[in-house]
């Protein structure tokens, strides 16, 4: 399944505005304004100026929070998004409710305490982002993430992504797609919104199981695998046309 | 550029790979008398069941199906239990015992249940599903034709001192499918595309090797091991539940780095 662009001109528009450029502009802008996100629960809140608002929308980081506050726009980020901005793009700082700037280890411990699989999820998220894919939450589709080739207004999502933590002692890691009805359910969901199911196998490669700091991420590797349904009736029609 | 609303951004159109399977209308509830009945064919083939081999030896072959069914050994055609049962179900084959008495369908079902022919009910359902669609199917690890004196294929064990080397190997193969441990995954069939010009003497490469697991979906390691066993031929997985057969492909990919 190749990319399905929305309408005429979308593909050209996307080519003219590479995501990497927008991310680079976003990075510069946030550094320049010394932006600080507020850590709250499993979310980081960030006040943004109009330029940053545009860039965040263009690159699909976070969701806008609707408020009366002017001229600030507020955005909320998931832990993966926030940590990506903080640790990979190094363009924001993060404070707690008491205005204390969190250190990288404090943040890491906090995020892992919220979700033990955070390291694997973050590795998968950054694996896609580093390749300049646009990554958003997949919860509406029963998957972990959805991946777009460019902005969702220009292109349909190609992949519904599930993150598997391999080699953690579980059969398939994290008990995902553990039984056949899980398969059928997820594939049916993906199929009905025309996305291919993409499994990101995150292998810790024997790294410290506790994973006490983000440096352990360097030892992780990610394997990509799609699962597709094969339809023998349809295939046979194609075959007959060939014969 | 505005942020597109989530719900609006998912398109309605589907792709051939993404089409959802059978519509829900397919689950008919049959009343007695509505269930379709197949007609017995007037000039069907005849085969004799060989209990030792766990296969049927074709005694009289009618119809073109024998070009794509059964294996040739020493000039004779032998069919596996799934081939035999498939043809018996549609009335194209009469199965006989050693006394030339017709073996009823019920007893053929019992053979499957017992595991004597080396096939399970589930693998038969998969076979039947694909065979009905015209695909050409052979058990994995078996040759389409064997000469009597020929050495057995490398994948099959079973050397015997006497001259029945090839027959012993078939027996070993027939046991391959009847006893799978829980959560074991293995290849069962080599599947070829529908082809009116198919020749057992030069079948070409299979379209794919079909694997099945006896419990839960396969793990990543099981898939990797099976792919290695398939030696470059694409691999598909099937799952059978309550008469419905689903097929899946696991594909290694490498997403491109985008601009």
If you had to describe this structure to a student in words, what would you say it looks like?
The complex is a heterodimer of chains A (243) and B (259). Chain A has eight helices and ten strands. With 243 residues, chain A is of the alpha+beta class. Chain A has a single domain (10-234), classed as Trna Endonuclease, Chain: A, domain 1 (3-Layer(aba) Sandwich), CATH 3.40.1350.10. In chain A, the strands form two sheets. Chain A has a five-stranded mixed sheet. In chain A, strand 1 and strand 2 (43-48) form a beta hairpin. In chain A, helix 2 packs antiparallel against helix 3 and helix 4 packs across helix 6. The mean pLDDT of chain A is 90. By secondary structure, chain B is of the alpha/beta class. Chain B has one domain (2-251): Trna Endonuclease, Chain: A, domain 1 (3-Layer(aba) Sandwich). Chain B contains six helices and eleven strands. In chain B, the strands form two sheets. Chain B has a six-stranded mixed sheet with strand order 5-1-2-4-3-7, with helices on one face. In chain B, strands 6-8-9-10-11 form a five-stranded mixed sheet, with helices on both faces. In chain B, strand 1 (45-50) and strand 2 form a beta hairpin. In chain B, helix 2 runs antiparallel to helix 3 (105-114). Chain B is globular and about 70 Å long. At the A-B interface, helix 3, helix 7, strand 9, strand 10 and helix 8 of A face helix 1, strand 10 and strand 11 of B. Chain A: InterPro entries: tRNA_endonuc-like_dom_sf, tRNA_intron_Endo_cat-like_sf, tRNA_intron_Endonuc_cat-like, tRNA_intron_Endonuc_N, tRNA_splic. Chain A: Residues 122-207 form the tRNA intron endonuclease catalytic domain. Chain A: Belongs to the tRNA-intron endonuclease family. Chain A: It holds the Pfam family tRNA_int_endo. Chain A: Residues 36-102 form the tRNA intron endonuclease N-terminal domain.
Task: Note the main attributes of this structure.
heterodimer, A: 243 residues, alpha+beta, Trna Endonuclease, Chain: A, domain 1, five-stranded mixed β-sheet, 37% helix, globular, B: 259 residues, alpha/beta, six-stranded mixed β-sheet, 6 helices, 11 strands, 22% helix, disordered N terminus
């Amino acid at each position: 399944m190749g990319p399905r662009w929305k309408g005429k001109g979308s593909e050209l528009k996307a080519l003219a505005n590479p995501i990497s450029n927008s991310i680079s502009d976003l990075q510069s802008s946030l550094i320049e304004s010394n932006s600080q996100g507020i850590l709250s629960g499993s979310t980081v809140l960030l006040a943004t100026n109009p330029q940053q608002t545009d860039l965040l929308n263009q690159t699909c980081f976070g969701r806008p929070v609707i408020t009366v506050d002017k001229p600030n726009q507020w955005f909320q980020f998931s832990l993966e998004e926030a940590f990506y901005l903080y640790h990979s793009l190094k363009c924001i700082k993060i404070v707690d409710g008491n205005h204390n700037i969190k250190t990288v280890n404090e943040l890491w411990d906090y995020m892992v305490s919220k979700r033990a699989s955070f390291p694997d999820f973050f590795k998968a998220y950054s694996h896609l982002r580093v390749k300049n894919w646009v990554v958003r939450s997949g919860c509406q589709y029963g998957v972990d993430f959805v991946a777009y080739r460019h902005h969702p207004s220009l292109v349909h999502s190609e992949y519904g992504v599930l993150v598997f933590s391999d080699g953690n002692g579980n059969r398939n890691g994290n008990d995902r797609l553990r039984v056949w009805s899980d398969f059928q359910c997820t594939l049916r969901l993906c199929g009905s919104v025309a996305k291919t199911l993409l499994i990101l196998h995150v292998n810790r490669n024997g790294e410290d199981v506790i994973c006490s700091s983000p440096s352990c991420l360097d030892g992780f590797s990610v394997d990509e695998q799609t699962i597709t349904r094969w339809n023998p009736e349809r295939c046979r029609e194609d075959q007959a046309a060939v014969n | 550029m505005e942020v597109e609303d989530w719900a609006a951004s998912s398109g309605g159109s589907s792709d051939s790979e993404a089409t959802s399977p059978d519509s829900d209308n397919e689950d008919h509830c049959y009343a007695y008398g509505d269930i379709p009945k197949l007609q017995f064919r007037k000039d069907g083939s005849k085969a004799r069941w060989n209990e030792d081999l766990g296969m049927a030896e074709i005694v009289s072959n009618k119809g073109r199906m024998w070009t794509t069914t059964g294996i040739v050994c020493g000039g004779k055609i032998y069919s596996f239990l799934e081939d035999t049962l498939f043809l018996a179900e549609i009335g194209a084959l009469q199965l006989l015992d050693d006394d030339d008495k017709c073996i009823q369908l019920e007893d053929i079902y019992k053979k499957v249940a017992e595991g004597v022919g080396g096939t399970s009910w589930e693998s038969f359902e998969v076979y039947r599903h694909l065979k009905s669609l015209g695909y050409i199917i052979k058990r994995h690890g078996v040759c389409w034709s064997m000469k009597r004196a020929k050495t057995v294929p490398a994948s099959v064990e079973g050397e015997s001192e006497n001259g029945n080397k090839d027959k012993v190997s078939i027996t070993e193969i027939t046991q391959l499918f009847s006893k799978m441990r829980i959560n074991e995954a293995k290849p069962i069939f080599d599947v070829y595309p529908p082809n009116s010009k198919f020749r057992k003497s030069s079948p070409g490469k299979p379209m794919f090797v079909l694997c099945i697991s006896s419990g839960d979906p396969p793990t990543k390691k099981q898939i990797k091991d099976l792919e290695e066993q398939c030696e470059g031929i694409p691999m598909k997985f099937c799952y059978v539940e309550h008469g419905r057969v689903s097929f899946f492909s696991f594909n290694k990919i490498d997403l491109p780095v985008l601009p």
